Fold this sequence. Notes:
The complex is a heterodimer of chains A (56) and B (183). Chain A is mostly helical and 56 residues long. Chain A is built from two helices and no strands. The termini of chain A are far apart. Chain B folds into two domains: 1-80, RNA polymerase sigma factor, region 2, helix turn helix motif (Rna Polymerase Sigma Factor, Chain: A, Orthogonal Bundle); 90-176, Winged helix-like DNA-binding domain superfamily/Winged helix DNA-binding domain (Arc Repressor Mutant, subunit A), CATH 1.10.10. In chain B, helix 2 (13-24) runs parallel beside helix 4 and helix 8 packs across helix 9. The radius of gyration of chain B is 17 Å and the shape is globular.
Amino acid sequence: MGPKDNSSRMDAEIDKNLKRAFDDVAGQELPSRFTDLLDQLRAQEAEAPDTETKDE
Amino acid sequence: MSDDPREEIVTHLGPMRAFAISLTRNGALADDIVQDALVKAWTNIDKFQPGTNMRAWLFTILRNTYYSHHRKRRREVEDTEGELSAGLAQKPDHDGRLQMRDFSAAFGTLPEEQREALVLVGAGGFSYEEAAETCGVAVGTIKSRVNRGRARLVELLEMSDTEPMEVTEAVTQGIVTLNQSVA
Lengths: 56, 183
């Protein structure tokens, strides 16, 4: 009932909004630029398999 | 093959985009940053310590990418969005409040460091400690950024006990989606 309760309730409201907006974007399908890039990165790996841990 | 930790990166790309957009407020720029960060993480996977929090590691890379290479561009982009900025910079009314109803618009007026602290802790599920490490600051600094950010939002949105903020679809239209159309 005190002001503290109110402020924690408002914090929760804010977090709810933040979370919803964040999850909105996070859950979107990946644009093709990323899926294409991933394909490319994986393909590079296949071509040059011995890019082992070289120092620096 | 499925043990390759790089394949785990893929599962974090969605949250990385959300974090990037909340930092930049610009969809196109955000995706450029995510792309750079993805390449960096992929090619530096040997620097990732298995068993530690990969999302925190990726967000750190993302954040460094933004601050070291892209931040300037965001400023330029913002400047060309004069109208939008003007719309946000409304005159405070007599009691100094902005009468801001739109969560997204209110969020956009917060300083960068408060936005990222709020998003990491409030939305991204980061502990204060993880957020502090990701941002390279002390835990107390993160706490105070989160608190100041929340307090400012409450003020801007005129949230009060008499008039609780309504969590409607319109209000939650997205901290993050606002500027995508501008991009």
